[in-house]
Design brief:
The protein is an alpha+beta fold. The protein has one domain: Peptide Deformylase. It has a five-stranded antiparallel β-sheet. A two-stranded antiparallel sheet has the order 4-5. 30% of the residues lie in helices and 24% in strands. It is globular and about 45 Å long. Bound molecules: nickel (II) ion. The site of nickel (II) ion (NI) has 5 residues, from helix 2.
Amino acid sequence: MKRPILLHPDPRLKKLCTPVTDMTDELRSLGDDMLATMYDAPGIGLAAPQVGVLERLIVLDCVKAEGEAPRPLIMFNPEIIASSEETNVYEEGCLSIPEHFADVTRPAEVQVRWIDRDGKEHTEEMGGLWATCVQHEIDHLDGKLFIDYLKPLRRQMITRKMTKLKRELAREKS
Ligand code: NI
């Protein structure tokens, strides 16, 4: 089931999310809902706070090539345990900040640890788009958005435009 995605600025997108301690069916179905929401958007990653849940859970699937099998990942308590010195620049976007994109520099390769829906621990090296995406999503769990990497002026400009967009959307609804 699809869930509504919160739009920046929203105080819930600035919060530190709490670790998942007990795997429940509710959390598993939240993961499924988040994947459905992400694919529908469409996007390549989504974090729980973006659907208003302040727990450490992200989903991603960065397979973009036509004909390649999808690889949906649901990650509880994801953590970067090592990062490369080498960096990469990607033009990032965010489902909570639609239609705004900017170059962000991040470590090119990261080692990520997480718990899956069955409570099993995984560790994996990620590179390319996967590395960027997983770092972007984990940032969400710490209340950080990709625009926080930009110069203040650019960030304020995007925030102003988003505030205006939200006002217009609210007006349309009423
Ligand atoms: Ni995002």
